[in-house]
Amino acid sequence: MPNKPKILIKPSDASTWVSCVRRAWLDKHQSSTVEIDPFNQLLFDAGLEHEAAILAMLQTEHNVHKAHSVTHTHALMSQGVAVIYQAQLLDEEAGLIGFPDFLIRHESGQYQPADAKLSQSEHKKSIQIQLGFYRRLLANNLPAIIFLGDGRKVTLGDEINPVAENFILRMKELLTMPEQPNVRYSHSKCRICPYYSHCRPDFDAKEDLSLLYGVHGNAANHLAVAGITTITQLANSEIAAIPDVPYLKDPKRKHRAILQAKSFLTGEISQLNKVTLPEGTWIHFDIEDNPLTPTRERHVYLWGFLAPPYHKENFESVWTDDETQDYDGWLGFLDKIDAYRTQYSPLVLAHYSNHEKATIKKYAERYNMQNHPTVLWLLGNNSPLFDMQKPVLDNLVLPLQGYGLKDICKHPSLVNFQWENETSSAQWSVVQFNRFLTETNPQEKQQLKTDILGYNRDDVIATRKLEEWLRTNFI
Ligand code: SF4
Q: Which residue has the CA at smallest separation from atom 5 of ligand 1?
């Protein structure tokens, strides 16, 4: 008889495993509970709302029974009930347990697993693993169903078996590992991971190459094979001595990686080229948007601007109370742009990263206004939009692991601008806006709005401070 695994593998392990195998190992081997942050709580609650909406829809068509245990689930299946809600499926021998939101009886008498997912894509690896996992537990050939966040109902069949089988195999290997697996650092994943303080000291002690901006974990693995294993070694390398490895083939990238290693060790800035900035009157621009709308189409609740002479009082905004005012907000934004265009010529509409431009494109498509004169100007060849991340990335190597606006502006040796609310962030703003939507006390509601406006005002002041810092030091 094979040994039964002590710890059961669940489909919900898939999203952690896809993100980081060490995190999956730690989740299974450490007893500490991880506190959920407000933004993820908001996502979780939105997921439950979506599940409740699908449940209500199924209840209009079928008799739905809620399962209370694995045995009860099997009893309901034997009775042939139309829909089983919160089903529980166990394969003790294989060490697998799954909780599909629904089991829906097919005309053949067998059951199809179905999940409600906020995602708008059926191609996410973790979703495919979860649905494939349920299909394995049900051991029939029927496709699994997903009720996606954008309202689509899609099915997934045998094509997801390999990804689910691979997950189960790898998770079984992980469960038997006595030590945590070796992994590389990932700034986007690690800085928001609850195990950050557990993992980070070891990465630092090893001077792991993946700590460097622009050195992907896969590149670090290949560099290690070539004998370059630490940041110091990379900092002391010549471009010609660095082999062509994934994500690091271009000599310019190699040069940047060497400078990034030096900057990591010394805190010094390297300037690759002179910074050039567009001429004109600068208006600083930043948006706040809510992804958790009923339609899952992002709603911009705040279009914020900082106009000359760039004091706090010069902050201007277009605000909408909820997504029913989405169109009014968009028109308000276009009116604001027209007014600036009339007042200032030439106009530079400065923002940080591509998000603002991409959002304008999406709104133009949403309201079929691609040929509106202001939209054509904003997105055309003579666009006033200027992404301030570009001159930074093109010309500077900074002692940073990420080149986000807050990374650069908050750094005491760089721009050194601090937001009034130290804990605020884009996710914080979304959480506050969702509180604003449900708040019934007028004073509390007003306070939430004031706080969000204050955060956005500091965002546009930050891009102004960044502009000044670039002009003073790098032109
Ligand atoms: S901190 Fe990073 S390496 Fe450690 S478990 Fe989290 S994601 Fe994985």
A: 23
Q: CB-based contacts of 331: which residues, under 8 Å, 6+ apart?
A: none
Under 8 Å between Cβ of 317 and 311: no
Contact 144, 156 (CB under 8 A): yes
Q: Which residue bears the tokens 């969000």? A: 452
Q: Which CATH architecture has domain 281-474?
A: 2-Layer Sandwich (3.30)
pLDDT digits (tens, 9 = 90+) for 19-71: 999 999 999 988 767 788 899 999 999 999 999 999 999 999 999 999 999 99
Helix axes 125-138, 161-176, angle to 10 degrees: 90
Query: Ligand 1 pocket, 18 CB below 6 A?
Result: no
Taking the mean position of all CA atoms in its chain, how far away is CA 232? Answer: 31
Task: Write out pLDDT tens, residues 68-108.
Answer: 999 999 999 999 999 999 999 999 999 999 999 999 999 99
CA of 146 to the centre of ligand 1 (A): 29
Sign of CA dihedral 57, 60, 61, 62: positive
pTM of structure: 0.91
Looking at the CA of residue 196, tell me the nearest atom of ligand 1. 1
Q: Residue 383 and residue 346: Cα distance in Å, rounded? A: 11
Q: Are 398 and 414 in contact (CB under 8 A)?
A: yes
> What are the extents of the domains in the chain?
13-176, 187-268, 281-474
Q: What top-level class would CATH report for the domain 187-268?
A: mainly alpha
